[in-house]
Amino acid sequence: MSNPTSTEYEKYYVPEQSKMAVMATIGLILSIFGAASVMNDKTFGDGITSGSWTILIVGLFWFMAVLFAWFRQAIRENIAGMNSAQLKKSYVLGMFWFIFSEVMFFFAFFGALFYVRTLVGPWLAGEGEGGRMNGLLWEGFEYNWPMALTPQEAVGGAASQPIANNGSFTSAETTMAFSDAAAWYKWLPLWNTIILLSSSFTCHLAHMGILDGNKKKFNLWLGITVALGFIFICVQFYEYYEAYAHFGLTLNSGIYGSTFFMLTGFHGFHVFMGMTMLAIQLMRSLKGHFTADDHFGFEASSWYWHFVDVVWVFLFLFVYIL
Amino acid sequence: MGDHHHGPAKGISRWLFTTNHKDIGTMYLWFSFAMFILGGAFAMIIRAELFQPGMQLVDPAFFNQMTTLHGLVMVFGAIMPSFVGLANWMIPMMIGAPDMALPRMNNWSFWILPPAFLLLASTLFMEGGAPAFGWTFYAPLSTTYAPPSVTIFIFCIHVLGLSSIMGSINIIATVMNMRAPGMTYMKMPLFVWTWLITAFLLVAVMPVLAGAVTMMLMDIHFGTSFFSAAGGGDPVLFQHIFWFFGHPEVYIIILPAFGVVSQIIPAFSRKPLFGYDSMVYATASIAFLSFIVWAHHMYTVGMPIAGELFFMYATMLIAVPTGVKVFNWISTMWRGALTFETPMLFCMGFLVLFTIGGFTGLMLSIAPSDFQYHDSYFVVAHFHYVMVAGAVFSMTAAVYYWLPKWCGRMYNETMGKTHFWISFIGFNLTFFPQHFVGLAGMPRRIPDYALQFADFNMMSSIGAFIYGASQILFLYNVIATIVSGKPTSEEKVWDGAEGLEWTVPTPAPYHTFETPPKIDPAHAHS
User: Fold this and answer.
1) Which residues of A touch B143 (CB under 8 A)?
2) What is the ipTM of this complex?
3) Enzyme class, one word (chain A) (predicted)?
4) Residue B518 exposed, middle or buried by CB count within 10 Å (0-12, 13-18, 19+)
C-alpha cells in the first residue's frame, strides 16, 4: 500500500464504480410494475394479460440474476482478501439491522392480530366502549376466536349488511386451532414446530462444526438443516391445501383467515428465503469457501434462520394455540 | 482493483455507477429539489383553486389528487431524501470516515427512488386518476373506494421503504463502525447523533408501513378483511398501524433538521453548542416517546377514554425534551458574537416558527380541544409550521452553510438574504391565516369553502405564490454559485465553524480521509 499510515489502521475497501445498483433497479421496477399490472388486470380489468405476466417474470428473473452477480462479486472480493476486519464488521451490522427491520415487519401483523382479538372482536359484538354503534350494525354477531361466524354472515350475508362492503366473507368450517387432544399426533402445526425447532438446533451444530474447522460435520448438519427447512415448507403447503380443500379456510374467511394466511404465509416465505440462503452456503462450503475463522456468509444466514424460528414460536403460540 | 486514488469518472457513468458518498449525496440533493419543485407545483394548483370560494380551476376529484400527491411527494420525495443526501455528504466527513460503510448499496438506495416517483407521478395519467385519498391513505378510502392506481401506489411505497431502510442501515453501520479512532460517541457532531437516531427510527417503522400497505393490497386484490368490519376487521386498525409508522415519521423528518440547526447556530454565535449532552439525551427521548404517542392523530375515532388520556399525556411529555432543545439553542446564542449570514437567518426563522408550530402542536395534543381542531385548517397550519419552517428552512440553511465547502465557491450573500426574507414573509402570509380559518371551522382537503373564509384564503394563496416564487431565486443562486460564484479555498469557510469537515481542503476533494484523521482528545465535540 502506498500510504505510510495504513499499517496502523487498515485501509477500508471502497469499491470502484459498480453497475449492480442500476441493474438491480431495473429488475426491481420491472417486477413491481409487472406485479401491479397483474393484480390490476385481475381485479379491475378483464383478466390477466400475458403482457403483464411477461413484465413480472422478466423483472423477477432479471432481479435475481443481478442479486446473484452482486453476491458473487462480494464473495470474490472477500476471497481475494480485500475485506478488512472493519469492513467485515459493516457486514455484521448490516445483517443485524436488516433482521431488526424484518422483526418490525412481523410486528405490524402481530399487532393487527392482537388489536383485532382484544378490541375489535368484542366491539363488533356490541361489548365495551366501542360496542355501542357496532351492536346496531352487526346485530346477532357473537365474538369468539377463532371466529365461527363473520359479522357479515351474522346479519345474513353481503346483500343485507347495513354498510358498504368490499366482498363477501365466509367463515371457515374448521379452523387450524388445536381441538382434538386425543388425536394430537395428527395436528400438523405441532410436527412443524418440532421440525423447525430441531432445524435451529442442527444449524447450531453446523456452526460448532465450522468453528472447530470440521468441514464434514459442518456440511452434514447444514445439509440436515436445509432438508428440515424443506420438509417444513412441504408440510405447510399440505396444511394450506387442507385448509382450502377441506376446511373452507381461505383468505376470504374473515379476519381469522386474513391473519392466519398472512402471518403463516409471510413466515413461510421467510423460511423459504432462509432455506435458500443456507442451501447456497452449503454449496459454497462444498466449493471450499469457508474456514474456521471466515464464514460470515453462513453466520448471517444462520442468524436469519434463528430469527424465522423465533417468529414461528410466536406464531405457534398466538395463531395456533391461544 | 486495489489501491486507487481516482477522481470521478467521466460522463453519465459517474452518476449511474458511482460508489462515492459525495456523488450520491449530490444526486439525493438534486433529486429532492426536483421533487420539491414538483410537490410545490401541486401546492400552487391547490392554492390557485382556493384563491376564491366556488369552483375555480380544477374539478374536485383532481383537487383531491393534488392534495394527496403534494403530501406524498413532499414527505417521501423532497424532505426525506434531502436529509439523506445531506447525511451522505456530511457524515463521513464529520466522523473522519473514507466513505459510507456499504457504498454499492448506498447507490442502490438512491437509484430506486427516481423511477418509483416517476411511476407514482404517472398515475396522474392512468384511468381513474392518481391516488386521491390523502397522503395518510386511510382505509376504506384507499381500499374499497380507491382508483386502480392504488396498486401502483402501494408498490411505490414498498420501494420508498426499501430505499429508506437500506439508507438507514448504511448510516447506522457508518456511524457505529467508521468513526476515526478517538471520535467517541459523545464527541460526534450533533448532526451525526440526530441522524443515527433517525436511522434507527426509520429501520423500526418503515417495515410497519410496508405491512400496512401489504394489508391494503391483500384487502383490495385477494379478499382479506383487515380493514373491513364485515369480515371482522376494522378500518381504525389501519389508522393505528399507519400512525405507528406516521408519528415516528414526523420525527424522522425533524430530527436531522435539529441536527443541522445545532451545527449552524454555534458557528454564527462563535460559541460551542450549549448543553451538548442534554441535546443528545433530548434527541433520544424524543425518539423513544415518538413510539408511544401515535393515537393522538386519532382522538376523534372513538377510542376508549383510557386510550385518549394515555396518548394525551404521553404527547404532552414530548414538549419537555423539545423545550430543552429550544432553550439550548437560545442559550448558545446568549452573549455570543452573533452575525446573521443567510444560514443563520434561516436558523433564526426555524427557531421562531418551529416554536410556534410546537405550541400549536401542544394545543392539538389536548384531546378535548382537538375534537374542535381535528381535520381543520388549524392542523394544516400546525404541520406546515413544523414541516416547512422546521424541516425545509433548516435544509435551506444547510445548503447555504455547506455549499461553499462542496463546490469551493461562495454564494451571493445579498441574494441569499433576499431569499430568506421573501421566504419568511411568504411562508407566514400563507400559513398564519390558516390558524384563524381552521379555528373558525374550515375543514382541510376541500376545493371550496364558505364565504366568510374568503379573505384569509386569498391571503394564503398570495403568500403561497410568493413563497413558491422565492424558491426559484434559491435555485438560481445555487446554480450561479456552482457555475460562477466567487472562488474560495479557505478550509474554514465560516470563521466560527467547528468540525472535521472544515479541516479538509475547499472544495472538498473527491475522496476525504482515506486514512483516518487524528482526533485531539482534549477537543470537545463540535
Assistant:
1) 166
2) 0.94
3) translocase
4) exposed
- Chosen from A7, A28, A153 to mutate, greatest number of chain B CBs within 10 A: A28
Has residue B189 been placed in a domain? yes
Residue-level pLDDT at A192 = 94
Structural domain includes residue A3? no
Total number of domains in chain A: 2
Residue B86: give the domain boundaries. Answer: 28-502
Read off the pLDDT band of B2 (50, 70, 90): very low
- Interface contact A167-B223, CB threshold 8 A: yes
Q: Are A232 and A155 within one domain?
A: yes
Same domain membership, residue A95 and residue A49: no
Between chains, do B233 and A116 touch, taking CB under 8 Å as contact? yes
Residue A264 in domain: yes
* C-beta neighbour count of A5 within 10 angstroms: 12
* Interface residue of A8, A10, A17, A119 to substitute, partner B, most B CBs within 10 Å: A17
CA B103 – CA A16 distance, rounded (Å)? 9
Residues 292 through 321 of chain B touching chain A, CB cutoff 8 Å: 302, 304-305
Burial B493-514 (b: 16+ CB within 10 A, else e): bbebbbbbbbebebbbeebbbb
In a domain, A258, yes or no: yes
A64 and A91 inside one domain: no
- CA nearest to A2 within chain B: B3
Which among B6, B19, B9, B211 is positioned nearest to B111, based on CA atoms? B19
pTM of the model: 0.95
Q: How far is CA A100 from CA A145, B200, B310, B427, in A?
A: 30, 10, 27, 40
Tell me the pLDDT of chain A averaged across its residues.
91
Say what the pLDDT of residue A3 is. 43
Among B387, B385, B367, smallest CA distance to B428 is for: B385
Residue B16, domain member (yes or no):
no
A115 vs B101, B220, B237: nearest CB: B237
Residue A7, domain member (yes or no) = no
A163 and A241: one domain?
A: yes
A180 & A47 share domain: no
Number of domains in chain B: 1
Please check whether residue B6 lies inside any domain of the structure: no
Q: Residue A58's domain spans which residues?
A: 17-82
A230-246 tens-digit pLDDT? 999 999 999 999 999 99
pLDDT tens-place string over residues B136-165: 999 999 999 999 999 999 999 999 999 999
